[in-house]
Amino acid sequence: MAKVEATKTALAKGDLRDMLREMLLIRRFEEKVEERFRAGELPGFLHVAIGEEACAVGVCRALEDGDVIASTHRAHGHTLAKGTHPNELMAELYGKQEGCSHGYGGSMHLYDVERGNMGANAVIGGGLPQITGAALAFQMRGEPRVAVAFFGDGATNIGTFHEALNLAQLWKVPAVFVLEDNRWAESTPESQHSPIRDLSERAKAFGMKSMKADGQEVEAVYRTARKALENARSGQGPVFLHLDTCRFSGHYIGDPQVYRPKEEARHLRETRDPITHLREKLGLTDAEFEELDAEVTAIVEASVAFAKNATDPAPEDAMRNVYA
Amino acid sequence: MAKVEATKTALAKGDLRDMLREMLLIRRFEEKVEERFRAGELPGFLHVAIGEEACAVGVCRALEDGDVIASTHRAHGHTLAKGTHPNELMAELYGKQEGCSHGYGGSMHLYDVERGNMGANAVIGGGLPQITGAALAFQMRGEPRVAVAFFGDGATNIGTFHEALNLAQLWKVPAVFVLEDNRWAESTPESQHSPIRDLSERAKAFGMKSMKADGQEVEAVYRTARKALENARSGQGPVFLHLDTCRFSGHYIGDPQVYRPKEEARHLRETRDPITHLREKLGLTDAEFEELDAEVTAIVEASVAFAKNATDPAPEDAMRNVYA
Amino acid sequence: MPELSYREAVRDALVRAMRQDEDVFVMGEDIAEMGGSMGVTHGMLEEFGPTRVRNTPISEMALAGAAIGAALQGMRPVAEIMYEDFMTLASEQVVNQAAKHRYMSGGQLTVPVVFRTQGGAGWSPGAQHAQQLEAWFVHVPGLKVVFASTPEDVRGLLWSSIYDDNPVVFFEHRTLYGIKGEVPDEIEPIPIGKARVHRAGDDVTVIATGRLVHDALKAAAEAETEGVSVEVVDPRTLQPLDEQTLVDSVKKTNRAVVAHEAVTRMGFGAEVAAVLQYQAFDWLDAPIERVGARFAPLPFAPVMESYVVPHADDVLAAVYRTVNKRV
Amino acid sequence: MPELSYREAVRDALVRAMRQDEDVFVMGEDIAEMGGSMGVTHGMLEEFGPTRVRNTPISEMALAGAAIGAALQGMRPVAEIMYEDFMTLASEQVVNQAAKHRYMSGGQLTVPVVFRTQGGAGWSPGAQHAQQLEAWFVHVPGLKVVFASTPEDVRGLLWSSIYDDNPVVFFEHRTLYGIKGEVPDEIEPIPIGKARVHRAGDDVTVIATGRLVHDALKAAAEAETEGVSVEVVDPRTLQPLDEQTLVDSVKKTNRAVVAHEAVTRMGFGAEVAAVLQYQAFDWLDAPIERVGARFAPLPFAPVMESYVVPHADDVLAAVYRTVNKRV
Ligand SMILES: Cc1ncc(C[n+]2csc(CCOP(=O)(O)OP(=O)(O)O)c2C)c(N)n1
Ligand SMILES: Cc1ncc(C[n+]2csc(CCOP(=O)(O)OP(=O)(O)O)c2C)c(N)n1
Ligand SMILES: [Mg+2]
Ligand SMILES: [Mg+2]
Questions:
Q1: Closest Cα of chain C to D88: distance in Å?
Q2: pLDDT tens across B28-70, in order?
Q3: Whose CA is nearest to atom 17 of ligand 2?
């Protein structure tokens, strides 16, 4: 998707409108995924990031060509924001050869190497040391590229996180570690999984620079991400980018959320929706918004049609790609 | 060994003299171990803590009966300070049945459960989560006991450390995590293994209270350890106890230390010897010191004689103790 | 006899042990309010409270290690590792610590801890959420390894595991939680180290674990219609292994098939085959057949996933191969 | 032909690859100034500098993971895990990540990384510094597994591993670093997946890995004096496994012994036995013997340690058992 001019700090209205469109596309895409899953069309284990669209879009918009990301189990938004076509993503969720992982990965293992997506990881923290390593490769070859890892608040409790950030800072590799802090790890609220209330403190243990932004304000995310990337790219070392965000839905599609007051999610949807915020900021009329909505909805519908008509792998294809 | 009265903050001369004696015993014991290893009498892989005696003695003196420790690969001092008789320790190093681990453990796996030594661990960080768990057991049963883990600066880089301290703070268990910071991890200086210069910063990531003491001043170690233990015992949560210490010898017995300027160790021995410091503080005359030295040296010599005359396990004994 | 699902049977053992014994408690990720990702601990928080039904952070090393430490201090913790794939993270603590403390201390310590975990394909989670790694732990002296396939067995064996003074790695199969079966009113502990003969037969012995026990029973019923009499044996505990029961059965049938969902190469079936060829060499009329997953990670697309892991028809084909080998 | 020690042979492969190829670099704990705890990388810091000879913190997960990440970006890292026991810590990254990225991405990625590690008893380090865990990795599709026993093999196979586009877990044996052997002037890459017949024989085939290759050769020489002709084969690569060479040998000798230092139960020998009994069933005149460590952690006291792990006399006894079975 179109890149925003690097040096720019403020964003032109057109850029913001593109971002709104992109967030809306992700929202409608994931709503469709929920619908198709409930209709029994989608196999596997799926997690949507509804409410967190500004994090994916704000960060990925700030990337340069050649930068790479590693995502998590909640990967649809990152994948679309990094440039994978909705058709290829939807086809993957349907387990088709045209899918971005050719049917081998699924929702938790979305890859698009050509577009700089090193893969979504279903093991919490699993992708972080690899981002440190990718950044090391860039550093060793003197390439002006940055490697970016997405992860959640729950992931800050796993040793892999600690080791990966420590090593990245020790070697000052060009990496940015993006914390999407939605204050939940499945059913476990932050107060039950972390002894500290401000997870930026985690970065102190490594002497890593940390930056913070409201994850519901895409412009703020974009601006802060630019700074973080600039810091990493210019050799000043990795950055811990803390995004304050919210999970509107369940942990996984179908999650009854017995552990969470219904009130909470409703309240968040009403007060913290990144799409509503940006729409108001841009002062879009209902007509304008509906036009945008219709446009992205058509793309999503088309992706479902594409996926359904796509090619099923043959059973024996399972034996391919085990080794190079 | 005799416990120091709990509420006391200052130490009576007699207590300090006991500590000097204990540090000297550990020093002479480890010098003897080096000698016997070089003589080819001791099998296995050994690490001495010469120069770090005040950490072991100061902390273990501060413990109450019922408190437990977990040690590291550098365990002789902790083991003696926690009350294991030199005979039992030396016998273990000779692989005898009378050894504190009955010949099954060796230098890196010293246990003395009756005396509260849950075991030395040869996996860096390996014992830390178990100290969190032992403290959890004390907390759940309402016992006024504290679990104490020793570890080095190099260990602060491993995920196990991060997870264990995080969990301990989250659950506010009665544990104290004692960092013996000698600024070396084998051949790797702290500057090469950690991005921060003050490792107390590690505790911030967990919101854990940290306390610091000069690890070469046994009284300071003791006093600070008392405070840390008090904090843990009274339910105010675990403490990160940072002891600034030095490794006078190689990483392991026989280490040529090609990576380290000869100068450094000599300088440390001359300026930072915890035994010299306390001896001067107590104003011991040469005669008094030599008397003390002769006393502990005799104990060490006796331990070697005891160990040599002790019982070799039978080969088939290897099949015992695999299961309860 | 009441009927319980496999899931309820696991819970029943946990609940009864916790009712009678203050030292028993459970810890794991999302086991409290949510009742565990598989719903096993559902309702236990309400009965026992957060002190004994402990939600942990995502810290497999510390959660396993803390359970070990509590066990070393006399508790009987049951730690849940949400997926077998994450046992890789806990493996240092399980393998180097839990399995060895008693030994390294020369018998001073006991480590009465249970690590419950689950895995299994058939629901397309992809390559990181359905591996079967039981073979790894069978290779580690000091550990006991249990893999139960029925509600009755899973309850009785979990009970025995909780009260065993050794560390037990306790495997449950994701696709079995829903199956129902009768269980005794009172828990009857099932000894660790005793295989179960599910079905007597004369022509071929199928030694199966986990989900494959049920596929083996299907295959056996099918084979019977073809006049082939199949004996189905579930070792239930992989370590210690009830070699006698397996060998006796094969000495009777003279043919053996070993079946599990794990990858065939270096899977548990290799150990069973090695034991049988050694102890029943002169009785074997056909090579021992191994049925297991093909040599690939688990793919996402259902058609491919189902191709990688074995099913009843694979067991049946193996059974037929052994008898054809005779003629 | 120059003579190199096993240690020097490993170093030679690393040094030559790094000289010709900027993408190759080494990372691990204490591999720089100290030259590694086994001295393998001695002198390499001086030649290549700290950028390509990287000391890492004690962070096995991150060190393994960073190597994987660099490999995903086109480098060819060789990561040293100081002791096999610590592979438990790296296992999540090796098993869930390195082994599966290519597959999960549907072939988009290659992961040209080598994980060098070592283990082995005989020097009384105790239970946490000498385990042999190669069997674990043989069970994981997507990994290649190498275990070389001679200077020539270790050099040629490490070279092939560095240039293989798949993740390779490369096992070295602690007690072999000192042994010397002739090697070609120029490195001759040894194909991964090709066994080596060290000694031809007619009566019994001994399939051995690591240190046991040398014990097997001792045993073979001894057996010869008793008129028993022993063929000794070293698979060298455990995954992929050169089944053909092993099977052909056994079809010739009709008897097999499998020997390794790892625990026998669920060890690599189980897989070999399962393969042989299946593919050479009608040729076997005796049960396949397995020689491996007894079922205990490694004890400290030398007399006990030596009792737990196998030696030449154990191989010899197994060889004799197979021939006695004939009469
Ligand atoms: C190592 C590991 N342990 C447990 C899980 C199961 N799991 C999947 S998502 C999740 C919660 C993650 O929380 P967070 O990191 O905050 O991400 P979020 O789901 O909130 O986006 C857990 C525990 C896992 N995938 N990996
Ligand atoms: C997990 C693990 N990795 C590597 C080692 C090898 N090793 C033993 S001691 C040591 C250095 C430890 O440094 P530190 O924690 O500072 O303790 P010190 O030796 O200085 O007392 C290393 C790397 C190990 N024992 N465990
Ligand atoms: Mg979260
Ligand atoms: Mg140190």
A1: 5
A2: 999 999 999 999 999 999 999 999 999 999 999 999 999 999 9
A3: B152
Return the percentage of chain D with pLDDT > 90, whole number: 98
pTM: 0.98
What is the predicted pLDDT for the residue at D326? 41
Burial per residue of B112-124, b for 16 or more beta-carbon CB atoms within 10 angstroms, e otherwise: bbebbbbbbbbbb
| Secondary-structure breakdown of chain A: helix, strand, coil percentages, each rounded to the nearest 5 | 50, 10, 40
For the question of an ipTM over 0.85, the answer is yes
Q: What is the pLDDT of residues A29-43, one digit of tens each?
A: 999 999 999 999 999
CA distances from D6 to A196, D10, D151, D188 (A): 50, 6, 4, 16
Distances (CA, A) of B317 to B32, B102, B107, C109, D132: 28, 10, 19, 17, 21
Residue C105 is nearest to which of B105, B127, B135, comparing CB atoms?
A: B105
CA distance D259 to B225: 52
CA of A181 to the centre of ligand 1 (A): 12
- Cα(C170)–Cα(C213) distance, rounded to whole angstroms? 17
Banded pLDDT at A10 (limits 50, 70, 90)? low
Q: Which chains lie within 8 Å of chain D at 3 or more CB pairs, if any?
A: A, B, C
Q: Cα–Cα distances in Å, from D324 out to D199, D255, D312? A: 22, 11, 18
Among all residues of C, which ones are annotated catalytic? 60, 129
Which chain A residue has the Cα nearest residue D94? A126
Do A110 and A92 touch, CB atoms closer than 8 A?
A: yes
Q: Are A160 and D65 in contact (CB under 8 A)?
A: yes
Question: D-contacting residues of A 201-260, CB under 8 Å?
Answer: none
C110 near B CB under 8 A: yes
Three-state SS for A75-104 is: CHHHHHHCCCCHHHHHHHHCCCCCCCCCCC
From the CA of B73, give the closest atom in ligand 2: 9
**C65 touches B at CB < 8 Å:** yes
Q: What is the dihedral of CA A192, A195, A199, A201, to 10 degrees?
A: 180
For A146, counting Cβ atoms within 10 Å of its Cβ (0-12 exposed, 13-18 middle, 19+ buried), the class is: buried
Q: Select from D139, D268, D307 the residue whose CB has the most chain C CBs within 10 Å, as the one to mutate to test that interface.
A: D139
Task: Enumerate residues 6+ apart whose C-beta is below 8 A from B202.
Answer: A205, B156, B161, B165, B196, B240
B112 DSSP 8-state letter: B
Determine the Cα–Cα distance for residues C172 and C189; give it in Å rounded to an integer.
17
Nearest to B119 by CA among C282, C301, C68: C68
Separation of alpha carbons C68 and C90, rounded Å: 11
Task: Give me the residues of chain C with pLDDT under 50, please.
Answer: 325-327
B134 CA distance to ligand 3 middle (Å)? 29
Number of neighbours of residue B289 by Cβ within 10 angstroms: 16
Nearest CA to ligand 2 atom 12: B185
Nearest listed ligand to the Cα of residue B151: 2
Record the tokens describing residue C59, joined without a space: 């810290």
Task: Write out pLDDT tens, residues D86-132.
Answer: 999 999 999 999 999 999 999 999 999 999 999 999 999 999 999 99
pLDDT in tens, B244-261: 999 999 999 999 999 999
Phi and psi dihedrals of C44, rounded to 5? Answer: -75, -30
How many contacts (CB atoms, under 8 Å) link A and C?
133
The torsion of the CA quartet B308, D128, D172, C269, rounded to 10 degrees, works out to 120
CA–CA separation, C206 and A315 (whole Å): 26
Q: What is the pLDDT of residue D324?
A: 86
Local confidence band at B12 (pLDDT 50, 70, 90 cut-offs): confident
Taking CA atoms, D23 is separated from A137, D19, D45, D57, D145, in Å, by 9, 10, 16, 22, 22
Beta strands in C93-195 (DSSP E): 114-119, 144-147, 168-173, 180-182
